[in-house]
Amino acid sequence: MIRKLLLAGAIMTMAVAANAGNEKTEPAILPDATYMFAQRDTCELFMDVYEPAEGSETEIDGKEKPTVIFVFGGGFIMGRRDEPYHTPWFKMLTDHGYRLIAIDYRLGLKGAEKVGVAQVNLLDRAIHMAVEDLFSATEYIIENAESLEVDPENIVISGSSAGAITVLQADYELCNRTEYAASLPENFRYAGVMSFSGGILSRKGKLKYASEPAPTLLLHGTGDRLVNYGQVRFFNIGFFGSDRIARRFKKFGYPYSIYRYLDCGHEIATIMDDSTEYQFRFMEEAVMGGDRTVVDMKIDDPGIAKVGSQSRRELYGGK
After folding, report:
1. Pairwise CA distance, residues 276 & 262, whole Å
2. Which of 185, 192, 234, 242 could, after both became Cys, cross-link 220 (CB 3.0–4.6 A)?
3. Closest by alpha carbon to 167, among 198, 191, 124?
4. Residue 307, pLDDT score
5. Average pLDDT of adjacent 10-residue blocks, the chain of 319 residues
6. For residue 192, what are the domain limits?
7. Domain count within the chain
């Protein structure tokens, strides 16, 4: 079961590429600036900054819209920050007055041939490598907030598939002030989290937050078996998908919105540019407005292309 979720982002990436067919692959928008935010032993990590479009509405009632950090998907195996099929969504956000920053992170499962329950340490390492890199990018943004024109108290983190796992895990580590969050200021917290088919890995059983998490938007297919919509448990080790996260948030009164796509699979990780209505509402009401109203919606949309049901054999060419 855990092995399936490890490959989810890679499967999603391949499925989107297959669906793209002969469509243009040129990016819909180019970054306004690129910065190196960290240097690791094996690579340098960069971020692309996309500024709000000229003439777009960057404020509501005198309050600036958040800066959105985006973490790409790819199963911790593949993917990159400037995949062309992400850029239409980037453009939608900038046209709507948001600044978007797309970041690199190290692919901790690149080259892995087998990852299962017995190799959970490998998954843990991959997730936390990505979290560490997200925190490094955040630290860079905080330290250069003036030149980047970013308000450190107004940052929303978002991600698709493996990227969604990364942002949910990052806020979990931050709220519990684990060693992974040590590089960030003590009083720092994200303004919001947007997850497209993500989850959280815990080695201590049920999810427990030492401090209140950021307002969180969850979009997930109820039939997702790649990044599980519910949970996968093995003694105290557990992977908790959007449904379980929402249950914990509801129990403790944390602010959240969840959109449950009935009978859909992992394709929901790819519909960022088709769900901006929910994203804008979340950022403008829950993040900017401080509205703690819980949104819990079931969506039955037969128009969504079902790619998540394909088997690994089909997607990997019989391998």
Report:
1. 19
2. 242
3. 198
4. 60
5. 46 43 71 97 95 97 97 95 96 98 95 64 94 98 97 98 98 97 95 98 94 98 94 89 98 98 95 96 98 97 66 32
6. 2-315
7. 1
